[in-house]
Amino acid sequence: MEFSVLQFIALGALTFVFVGVITPIMRKLALRIGAVDAPNLARKVQKEPVPYLGGVAIAIGVVGASYGSLLAVDFSMETFRLASFVLVPAIAISVMGLVDDLRGLAPWPRLIAQTVTGIIVAIILTSTDTMGVAFGNTFLNYVISVLWIVGVCNSINFFDNLDGGAAGTVAVISIFLFLIAYDRQQVLVSALAIVTAGATAGFLMWNRAPAKIYMGDAGALFLGIIISVLTIRLSPGVAPQVKSFAIPLALMAVPILDTTVAVTSRIYRGISPFQGGTDHLSHRLARAGLTRRIAAFTLWALAAFYGALALAIYLWPDTAGYQLMAIGAATWLFKLVYFLRIPSEG
Question: For the chain, what are the domain ranges?
Answer without folding.
Answer: 5-341
